[in-house]
Amino acid sequence: MKSAMCAEAIVAGLSVETLQGTTLDVGCSGDMLTINGKAIISNKDILATNGVIHYIDELLIPDSAKTLLELAAESDVSIAIDLFKQAGLSTHLSGNEQLTLLAPLNSVFKDGSPRVDARMKILLRNHMVKDQLASKYLYHGQTLETLGGKKLRVFVYRNSLCIENSCIAAHDKRGRYGTLFTMDRVLTPPMGTVMDVLKGDNRFRMLVAAIQSAGLTEMLNREGVYTVFAPTDEAFQAMPPEELNKLLGNAKELASILKYHIGDEILVSGGVEALVRLKSLQGDKLEVSSKNNVVSVNKEPVAEADIMATNGVVYAISSVLQPPANRPQERGDELADSALEIFKQASAFSRAAHTSVKLAPVYQRLLERMKH
């Protein structure tokens, strides 16, 4: 390794890079030091004038000499590897083919290993990318071609790197011919446009009709980058009948409300931090947050996340979102802000009388707002 490291300095979960470039996971298990989870250090802390030596009981084979199967054997992806084998894809993992394997963690399969049918075989082929990649060279908007013929999109967020709905959960393992990406969920390639997704799901029949009435069908069918928070039929039916009829009968207002449900970029759930403000096509911002693996928009929990489309991502939601101007509380906050502005300017007026001319317009705006 590039620096001297005594045993006392080693803590659990430490990753270190060798001079050759391989990353080793160094840790401890009780009184024993481990390398890649194995207690193979037999004698430690032999000091030299230019470093420190630890004797080990096994020869460490660098990742760069290993096949994808060998790399996977040292990672928490055994269930996924078994699925690839059942699907008849072992030769891709042990040969000299240049590819990148997107392998979901074992923890993803909470209900056990799924059955490998024809559909699953296609899905697994779409977890194999036709090139040996390194995650540090991936960029936002990049497309990756899979063995299954799909084009997968790369999304780079502040603290996560995602491919479609699935995000990279650990450091790459780069082998002789292939690279292993450990993923936090099973990847679902997009199957159609946003409109295709909505039309193909019976939960969104009222939303589809509303989109058509508002003249937004063409927009959601063409190429683009949208995050759509899609109210279910139950969400529309939960609205007061008079309010719903009024909304559906006003195409302009309906279009504005629907555009407030559409973000102007693709935000998958893995890219959501404590709070992300996403600009809507209507102009106001949506507050998207994540807590305990539950995504919310404007504090309303999402019913289903990451329904991928070729021009965006769809979230199913159980309520119709209202822009800030339509919310009484938000309007009250705006009035309070205006009152605070008046107070600040009045204070300035008491200190400098010549600034009084600035007070009148603000006061007039507040009076006008309070009339409505």
Automatic annotation (TrEMBL):
Pfam families: Fasciclin. Gene3D superfamilies: FAS1 domain (2.30.180.10). Residues 1-60, 64-187, 191-321 form the FAS1 domain. Signal peptide: none annotated. One of its GO terms (cellular component) is extracellular space. GO terms for biological process: cell adhesion; extracellular matrix organization. InterPro entries: Adhesion/Biosynth-related (IPR050904), FAS1_dom_sf (IPR036378), FAS1_domain (IPR000782). One of its GO terms (molecular function) is cell adhesion molecule binding. PROSITE patterns: FAS1. This is Transforming growth factor beta induced.
